[in-house]
Design a protein that fits this description.
Blueprint (H helix, E strand, L loop, with lengths): L1 H20 L20 H14 L8 E6 L2 E7 L3 H12 L6 E7 L2
Helix pairs in contact: 2-3
């Protein structure tokens, strides 16, 4: 009877281990091709930033220059308040594909 109890416990432990760790074929991560990350072109980034700035009522009428190179954005121009300069920067940062933003916008 004791041997039967020990075998039952051992069988249950083995079954529990197989259920929690899986008993199927394992695949090494190097065998699976990772999905490609989205690619954002500089013209697409430029268009999205430009659109966001043009649609912002607080920034309409200002001449803001946007340069994009490999996801790095340089902003220049003249606005009236620090809040407006920060809004231009914020519109740039929220665009997918932007890596850095160099805000060189001046105040009068």
């Amino acid at each position: 009877m004791r041997i039967f109890n020990k075998l039952s416990i051992l069988s249950l432990a083995l079954a529990g281990t197989l259920l929690t760790t899986g008993c199927g074929e394992r695949i090494h991560e190097s065998w699976v091709e990772k999905p490609a990350a989205p690619v954002y072109s500089d013209p697409l980034i430029f268009d999205r930033i430009s659109s966001a700035i043009l649609e912002d009522p607080q920034l309409q009428g200002f001449d803001i220059k946007i340069e994009v190179s490999d996801g790095h954005v340089i902003l220049s121009g003249l606005v009236n308040t620090q809040e407006q300069a920060e809004r231009v920067s914020m519109h740039s940062w929220i665009v997918d594909g932007v890596n850095t933003v160099d805000n060189q916008i001046d105040l009068p």
